[in-house]
Structure prediction request, 645 residues.
Amino acid sequence: MTEEQSTKKIHINRALSYIETSLLPLILAVLFAIQNQAFNKWLSLYSKTYSTRLFLAAFALGIVLYGPSLLFKKRHKYLYLFLVSFLISVIFSAQFIYYKYSQSFLQFSAIRYIDQADSVMGTVQKMLSPHLFLFFSNLLVVLIALILTLRKNYIELSLPKWERAAIIFVMVLSAIIGYKYLLDTEKKEWGNTSRLYSDIYDLKSLVAKIGIMNFFVEDTIKYSLRAGLVTNDDRDFLKTWAAKGRIVQNTKNYFGLAKGRNIIIIQVESLESAVINKKINGQEITPNLNQLTKTGLYFDNYYAQTGPGNTADAEFSTMDSLYPLPNDVVFINYAKNNYKALPNLLKNNGYQTYSLHGDVPTFWNRSNIYPGLGYQKVFGLNDYVGTRPVGKGPSSLGDEDLFSQSLPKLKSFKQPFMATLITMSSHTPFILPADLQTLNISEDVNFNETQKNYLQSIHYTDKAIGEFINGLKNDGLYDNSLILIWGDHGSFTNISSALGENKNILEELSGSQVPMIILAPKTNLRGTSSIPSSHLDIYPTITNLLGFSNPTIILGQDLLNTKNPVETHFELISGGIDTILTSNLVYQANNDGLFINGHCKSWPAQESLPISDCQTLYNQQFDDIRASNIIIRGNLLNNFSVNNP
Prediction:
């Protein structure tokens, strides 16, 4: 070998050594970003709008994961890179297969169920794909780099401290720039960055923005932080609270009235009580719902119990009779808890249980929490054919399509069944095609544009509900069903005030007052009830009508038997009590949240009373909310039992 060839070989080896020593983490970080992009594209999660922030956010995480290898010497460096690459490859592959199977994403809490993996290995094998090779390519890169270091003429470079520090600085700066771009873009679009970590309800959009690995890391951190949220004092309190028991009603009016009937639940998006039995220019806003309030039992003093999860919180409260969390979304962050939900109870008593909703299964993380709630089959967006987009997005399924295409599904179900249908067309921003805006609203009415759009969308949804009820009758399902219809939460449009409907109710509750109707054909269950009630009361009311006993802890009241009806609202974020309403008392908190500075009044006269008159009521409700909070955060539902009304 000539001297020139020898020198050239030395330079090549030095170059390879430099790449291996300093640039390997950077190469792996770029590959990591590419893997995130490919993951989204192959699963149809990719969006050009989010492509730049996706790449930079994934690259930033790649730097965070691979960069620390610069701090190790050769042997420990490759051990670190191999372990990190292996974990990344496994997570990528598991998430890819899981999404193809369930249209949802694995959360860190699912690691508790790793022992059940054997039962699904057959399904996993069928879903293996050549795409998975890309997710293991990082291991190949690490292996190739390691092999190069074993070459005979390999020269291991020992970088000067300043050069190593400079490389680390550049990498840290790159990671900061990547995440800063993500946050700045979110703030530019939404006015804040909270949607990335606190107000996310569509996990599909979140993964499209930050990548599956950022999602998994964020979920893991959240899960770890939640581990210490329940203290020993909390557990002692819960034992004392459970030991006190709850008042058991001696009477059981209507017990078993609907025994053996199908349960059909319609949860209506943003439906407020303010629009019920109201007219505009002589035209009823909700003519079909108005008729149903006369056909069945209508609760006109009913309120939504929701936290930051809105629709998801409404589902949780009605299906579990527990309070939602004031600063967290149960459906997302506590999806793998053990719940004794209504679908589970019905399933254990011979019912088939179904959920029908015109959105993707990842929305509000439903595909992860529904199995634990007891739903045996979930119908989502892919199970319907949208004749035209109606509602909040270009692919939104109109309520008429949802209901008309659900009818044959319901007719095919083995009876008795429970079916929950969730509407979407009246979701903010209340977008409705012009030809479907059939409510006559003159220009001189005192409504802003958002309120007009809301009324049009509710009028359209009301029409779809009316057609659905007629369809149930034509299919022979109506008479053998117990049908419940309620609004999930308010519209946030101040429509109650615009319609003059907050004069006879507490102003603090006007935006959360929603209608609830129970239809039990061929029974005497009809009329109007004005007892204070909420989403928590659905569960025990249904079980009474079906003739079932309630399991363990139920915080709601059976609306057909309660002698002490009460409705309690808490404040978001703090979780402190805002308002308590009973048949003869009302408690309203002061701005400082201290009980002693609140106001106790008679109801409905609203005459001031000594604050001590509300003390017992306040204490009981405060303890119930605290107990519910502890049960959820600590996954303690199976640890305690109480006597239920």
About this structure: The radius of gyration is 29 Å. Residues 214 and 454 are 36 Å apart (CA to CA). The longest strand covers residues 262-268. The chain has two domains: 3-226, 255-562.
